[in-house]
Here is the input.
Amino acid sequence: MTLKTFAAAIITVAELPYAYDALEPYISAETLHFHHDKHYAGYVAKLSELIDGTRYASLPLEDIVRQSDGAIFNNAAQALNHELFFAQFSPHPHHAPHGKLLRAIELQFGSLHDLEKAMTSASTMLFGSGWVWLAADGDGVLYIVSKPNAETPLTDGLHPLIAIDLWEHAYYLDYRNMRRDAVEGMFKALDWAKVEERYNKI
Ligand code: MN
Here is the structure.
């Protein structure tokens, strides 16, 4: 008798939860085809190759991100970051949170508009490729976190709520060098119901 592992099935490409053209005009079908099918799927494929036969092969993606470094970390974090990124948008987004997330935003940032302004400003200030995050600690306290390359607030013990992808592949086809416009577009398609769902799970 042999012991079977199902490691190969753990890391998969999450399908887009909407059509490729569903987020236009904010994110084009062309961008989503490249971003989801080439860049994101590429990280997943590379990660699967790197962890094959290693102790990481049986771990959930979050644990690989927490425990790895180097190439495995880079590809695992990018796989997870993109899962969070694509899942947070909707063609019919809720434009505001309510309940305890809205209260936390108002308490800490003044208003939802002020939070979006602060995240947009952090996005334009981030040098090179990376991510700007809204994250929360275990008590529900919110943080705007800027991270270079593949890094994620998950490794700081925080819960990622919003992922703003600032790699040029995320926006260059649609916005060229206009990063601020790209981030404002992402906020237009952001579904606060999804963000709230993440916050309420903390
Ligand atoms: Mn990306």
